[in-house]
Amino acid sequence: MTSASRVLLDLHDLKVERGGVEVLDIPSFSLGENEFVSLIGPNGSGKTTLLLSIMCLLERSAGRIVYRGEEIGSDHSTLAYRRKIAMVLQEPLLFNATVYENVASGLRMRGVARAVTRRKVMACLERFNLAHMVHRSARKLSGGEARRVSLARAVAVEPDVLLLDEPFANLDAPTRESITDDLEKTVRDAEMAAILVTHDRSEALRLSDRIVVMQSGKIVQADAPSVVMNCPANGFVATCMGMETILDGVIERNEDGQLAVSIAASRLEAIGEGEPGTRVYCCIRPENVTIDLVHPGVATSARNVFPARIVSMSSMGFFLKVSLDCGFRLVSYVTPESFTRLQLEEGKEVFASFKATAVHIVAREEHGKVDRG
Amino acid sequence: MDLIIEGVVKAFHLLIALDPEVLGITFLSLMVSGTATIISLAIGISIGAIVALTSFPGKRIVVSLVNTGMGLPPVVVGLFVSIFLWRSGPLGFLGLLYTPTAIIIAQSIIATPIVMGITVGALQSLPASLRLQILALGATRIQMVWMLVKEARLPLMAGVMAGFGGVISEVGASIMVGGNVRGYTRVLTTATVMETGRGNFDVAIALSVLLLSFSLVINYALTLIQQRDRPR
C-alpha cells in the first residue's frame, strides 16, 4: 500500500476452514483506496478463498472484516457492503441474454433507474470496446469477448473494490494484452481498488502497486513489486517470482556484507547478511547469468565464473532457456542471436558467470516457519 | 373400415358445426388442466428451487422421491383424492368430490412432481459457480434464485409442457374424482372413454382429434417461445 492512500479494507485474523482443515489464515491484510494488488501463488494456495471471504460469500471460522472503519457482520449489513464490491470469477459465467442485459444486471439488482442504467451500461460497453455488440446474445461471443463482457458487467456497478479471479486465464496473448490495457485504464480512471489473482508474473508486475504471494492459505510476502521480485522473502517466493536457480548453501565467510557461500563443492560470492555457518538459499535470476565460450578472466566484473556443461536447452519464445551443470544446477536465458553465434548445443563445455550482486541471499526457513530473510 | 371412415366424417361434422356440448367439454378440459398446470408450476418451481439450491440431510432421498413422483399413476392419485374428499373422509365436509375443483386438485398432484423434478434437474445443471457470480454482482438471495430460474428457463419450459401434456391426457383421476358428470365434470378424456364404451365412435373420434390438436397447438406455442428465447 502506498503510504499516502487511506485504508479501505482491513482483514483481521481471518480464518476459513473447509472440512475441519484450515484453508485460509490471514492474520492481517489491508487494502488501500485506489490500490492495485496482485495475488500470486500456486493452485490451492487460497487465493480464490481469500477473494470469496472478502466478498462474504464464504463462511469464515474466525476473524473480522473492517470496511472504511466499519465492521462487517454476517447479517443485513453484508448486502450493502457486498454491493460496494464486485467480483469476476474465473469463468465468464454470462447470463443467457444479450450483452446489454448482462452488463445491466448488477445495476438492475440495485434498482437503478432505467435511464441511468442505460447511460452507465453504454459508457461501460464503450470502455471495453463492446458497443458494437450491445444486442448480441452473450452465448454467441468468443472467449475474449465473453471475458470483456464479464469485466464490463462487474465494472458497470462502479464498485469501490474490484476482485478479479484470473480473468485472463486461457486467452491468447494479443487478446489478453488488449483486455489488460482496457482493465488497467478503467481501474485507474474510476479510482477503484482492485485485487487480481494471476499466475502471470509480468501481468502482476505491470499492474500492481503491491504483490501478495500466498502459500497454503497464508500470505508469505506482501510488498512492492520490485521488492518481491528482487528480495523474495523465502525460497518459495523466489520460485514464484521466476528465480529459476535456487541453491542450497552455507555462509562460509562474511566480510562487511561480502559473503562467501559454499554450494556443493563450489563457492559463490554474494552480497548480503548472515553469520558464517548460517544455512541460506542463493537465488539467481536466469537473465543475470552470462555464458562465455572462453574464461572471461580479468575482463569481467562478474565475481562468479564457473566451468559448465550444457545439460538441456528449450525455447521460451523470444529467448532460450539453457540449463547448465557447474557442479550445481544453473539456468541462463540467452537470445537466439547469442545461441547461434556461440553455437550452443547440449553437452558443450562453456563458462557461466554472474555478479555477486546478482545472487540474492534468503535465510532458510527452520521448522517450516516463514522467515522474512 | 367403414366404421372408421364414417366416424371421421361425422367427427368433422361435429367439429365444424361447433357442437355446444363438445365445445363445453373442450373448454372445461382446458380450464381444469390449465389451472392444474399453473398451480403445479407455482408449487413445483418454488419447492424444486429450494431442493436444488439448498443442502440438507436426506436430500438425495427427497430428489429420488420427487423423481418417482414424476411417474405417479393417475389412478393412484384418483384413489387417494377420492378417499380424502369422500363424504366421510377427512376433507369430506368441503363437498368437493365430483366437482371440477376435485379434478384440478388431482391433476395438480399429478403435475407437481413432474414440474418439481424438471426444476431440480434444470437448476442443478447450471454451473455451481454461477450462484457465486450472481451474488458477487450484488444480488440478494431472492434475486439470485430468480436469476437462476431465468437462466434455466429453457428446460423449465419443458417442465410446463410435460406437466400440461400429462394432465390434459390423463383419464383415471378425472373419472374417479370428477365422475364424468355431463355438463359439469365431463372432460375430453372421460367423454372419449364413455362414448367409446357406448359405441359412439364418431363422437369419440371428434373428441380425440380435439385432444390431439390442443396438445399439438400448445406444445407448438411453447416450442416457439423456447426457440425465440434461444440466443440468436
What does this structure look like?
- The complex is a heterodimer of chains A (373) and B (232).
- Chain A has ten helices and 20 strands.
- By secondary structure, chain A is of the alpha+beta class.
- A six-stranded mixed β-sheet of chain A has the order 6-7-8-3-9-10, sandwiched between helices.
- The longest helix of chain A is centred in the middle third of the chain and has 17 residues.
- The mean pLDDT of chain B is 89.
- With 232 residues, chain B is mainly α.
- Chain B contains eleven helices and no strands.
- Chain B has a single domain, classed as Orthogonal Bundle (MetI-like fold).
- At the A-B interface, strand 6 and helix 3 of A face helix 6 and helix 7 of B.
Tell me the count of domains of chain B.
1
Report the average pLDDT across residues of chain A.
Answer: 88
How many strands of chain B?
0
**Which oligomerization state do the chains in this entry correspond to?**
heterodimer
Shape of chain B: globular
Strand order of the largest sheet of chain A: 6-7-8-3-9-10
Topology:
The complex is a heterodimer of chains A (373) and B (232).
Chain A: E1 7-18, E2 21-32, E3 36-40, H1 47-54, E4 62-67, E5 70-71, H2 77-82, E6 85-88, H3 99-109, H4 114-127, H5 143-155, E7 161-165, H6 173-189, E8 193-197, H7 201-207, E9 210-215, E10 218-223, H8 225-230, H9 235-240, E11 245-255, E12 258-263, E13 266-271, E14 279-284, E15 290-292, E16 304-315, E17 320-325, E18 329-334, H10 336-341, E19 349-354, E20 359-363
Helix pairs in contact in A: 3-4, 3-5, 4-5, 5-6
Chain B: H1 2-16, H2 20-53, H3 59-69, H4 74-85, H5 100-124, H6 128-136, H7 141-151, H8 153-168, H9 172-178, H10 188-198, H11 201-229
